[in-house]
Amino acid sequence: MRKRLFAFILAAAMLVTMAVPAFADNPGTGNSDFVIQNVENSTATVTVDYYDQTGANDVSGSPFTLNAYGSRVFQSSTLPVGDGWVGSVVISADKKVSAVTMLTWQSTYGTVDDRITGDAYAGTYAPGTDLYFPYATVKPVGTIPGKLIRFSIITVQNAGTADANIQMYYYNQTDGSVTGPISDVIQAGRSKSYNLSLSGPKIPNLGGNWQGSVYVHSDQPIAGVVTNHWAQYIYRQWASAYEGVSSGATTLYAPSVFRVDRTSDPAVGSWVRSSNIMVQNLGTSPANVTIQFFETGSTTPKMTINDTIQPKTMGEYNTRFGSPTNPAYPASAFASALGNLFNGSVVINCTNGQPLAAVVHTFWNRPDENAASTYVAVPAGATEIFVPYAPRKKSGTAWVQWSKIAVQNLSASTANLTLTYYNPDGSVALTLNPTIAGNSGDAYNTRFGSDSGAVPASAFNPLGDNFTGSVKITSNQPIVAVVNLISKPNWSGTYNAYVP
To answer: How far is 474 from 13, CA to CA, in rounded Å?
Structure first.
């Protein structure tokens, strides 16, 4: 049986090959690398097919093999599609595989600033006919004249065998009003992108200060991704990406959440990291939700938020700036409850049965590391999960890229973990056996060791200084995980580990 995995990639240039002077027209030139991991204990035969959005430059790949638990990196510079290509990928295999896509954009302001931004997101294994994006925005008025402060691009891929007739609905975060349905047709295997900064026949004019959620319905199975682009200051831009979800759940888990304010530290003098949790009610009635924050190593919540979210709308909970959707939780409430060095996980519950979806933005705000990343909160865990890409790279003595796997224990009992790091050929490079307390989490950083300190940085030395492999994590308790990727200069990404 051939299994199919769906992913979007942007090869060599995003939309146009030249840099553009106005951020409102384009996030800049872009590239995509992607990684495929074999998650079964036998050799997989894999084929990668590329579908151009216009249908003018489709490429069918040749089969190749991946050893058990092996992986392969596809760099944008070596893909068979050429410059100026934008489209989607279908990965077919006779074994289960996971995948992650890493996007980068080169933003250009001429003599003002050229910056690299990016993020990572996971491929979709089981597309559905409904697709939810808890966060999207377009805010045309910013501090840079004529440039957007923030906007989203929504890409939808038809994973079916016939034309997909889709309807898109845009829900305003502030008042719950809906724009739509807006209908479109996407050919089988292909994708279409909807840049919310460029209103037109298929993209609504949402006004000058819109933020909210998007729902897409189709008569064929679909997958999707949102890329978000910020330009808050003339010298600082961010970008992030996350995959859409096909259904909701009454309990969601967020393994990596931060509130790290070191403005009073003379050695740093700034915010280091902060997170923004965006929760969408997918149901038809108001959702009564609780959001619990657990510090690394702690089995009891450090902060609990109680809120009600109206149908189809979104609640926002920002550890740095407070909740703009609920005035009962201003910035001071997060500061008082979480302190200035919070690093941990979150559990989101709906207590009256309404399905939820959520994403977590993280902003990496140190002066040499201005970046953003987004991941999807996870509805359920497993005792075996997979990480397609967990690098550890140096150039001489300078760090180039490293990874941090944040693991959350979903049970009240101690989780005994085994993290097995595999080289691309499937051979074992490193095995670790840490534990995580019940209802808590820890994170395993190939540069700095674990957040708890139980696994020292030196434990990762066997990976060497040019590791690009994958990881299998097993546990005696259900777990979930996300992966933070940090690259120099100024690029960070977060993606969801694969739950079979």
So the answer is: 38
Backbone phi and psi for residue 461, each to the nearest 5 degrees, phi listed first: -60, -35
Q: Identify the H or E element spanning 165.
A: strand 164-172
Cα angle, residue 79 at apex, residues 244 and 54 outer, rounded to 5°: 60
Q: What is the pLDDT of residue 252?
A: 97
Output the six-digit token pair for 301.
């919540």
One DSSP character per residue, 434-451 reads -EE-TT-EEEEETTTEET
Q: Which residues contact 214 (CB under 8 A, 6 or more apart)?
A: 132, 133, 136, 154, 168, 169, 170, 171, 226
pTM beyond cutoff 0.90:
no
The full length of the chain comes to: 500
CATH 2.60.290.11 range(s) for the chain read 3-243, 383-496
Per-residue pLDDT of 44-76, as tens digits, reads 999 888 888 777 777 888 899 999 999 999 887
Sign of CA dihedral 248, 404, 92, 41: negative
Mean of pLDDT values over 262-288:
89
CB-side exposure of 12: number of CA atoms within 13 Å?
A: 12
Q: List the structure tokens of 134.
A: 């808890």
Residues 6 or more apart whose CB falls under 8 angstroms from that of 124 comprise 5, 6, 7, 159, 223, 243, 244
Report the mean per-residue pLDDT for the chain: 84
Examine the pLDDT at 231 and tell me if it is beyond 60: yes
CA–chain centroid gap for 372, Å, is: 10
Provide Rg for the chain, Cα atoms.
21
Instruction: Judge: domain 3-243, CATH 2.60.290.11.
Output: yes
Name which of 247, 313, 256, 231 is nearest 279 in CA terms.
Answer: 313
What token pair was written down for 331? 């910035």
- Domain 251-376 sits in CATH at 2.60.290
E strand intervals along 123-149: 128-139
Strand partners for 100 = 35, 122
Token couple for 452: 């708890």
Domain 383-496, what fold? Hypothetical Protein Tm1070; Chain: A (2.60.290)
